[in-house]
Amino acid sequence: MNRRSFAQSVGSAVALSAFARSSARAQTSSLATPRRTMAIAAHPGDGLFTMGAVLAQQIELQGSGALLCLSMGEKGAPKDIPVKQYGEMQRTATQKATHMLGAEVIFLSYPDAEIPFNEESALRVCDAIREHKPDIVLTHWSGSWHKDHQNCHLLVRDAVFYAGLETLARSRPAHSVSKLFYVENWEDASNFVPDTYVDIEAVYEKWLKACDLYPMWRGQTGFFRYSDYYSNLSVLRGCLSGFKHAAALMSDPSQRMQRSQFL
Ligand SMILES: [Zn+2]
Question: How confident is the model at residue 211 (pLDDT cuts 50, 70, 90)?
Answer without folding.
Answer: very high
